[in-house]
Amino acid sequence: MEQENKKLKEIALVFLKLGLFAFGGPAAHIAMMEEEVVVKRKWMSREHFLDLIGATNLIPGPNSTEMTMHCGHERGGFLGLLVAGVCFIFPAVITTGGLAWFYIEYGEIPSVQSFMYGIKPAVLAVIAGAILKLGKKSIKNVEIAVFGVLVLSLSLYGINEVLVLLGAGIVGMLYFTLKNRNKTFSTFLLPLGLLGSPGFLLTNLSATKVFWIFLKVGAVLYGSGYVLFAYLDAELVEKGLLTTVELLDAIAIGQFTPGPVLSTATFIGYQLGGWQGALTASAGIFLPSFVFVALMNPFVPKMRKSKVLRYFLDTVNVAAVAIMLAVLLNMTVESVVGWRSGAIALLAVFFTFGPFKINAIKIIIGGAVLGYLLNLI
Question: Is the full-model pTM beyond 0.90?
Answer without folding.
Answer: no
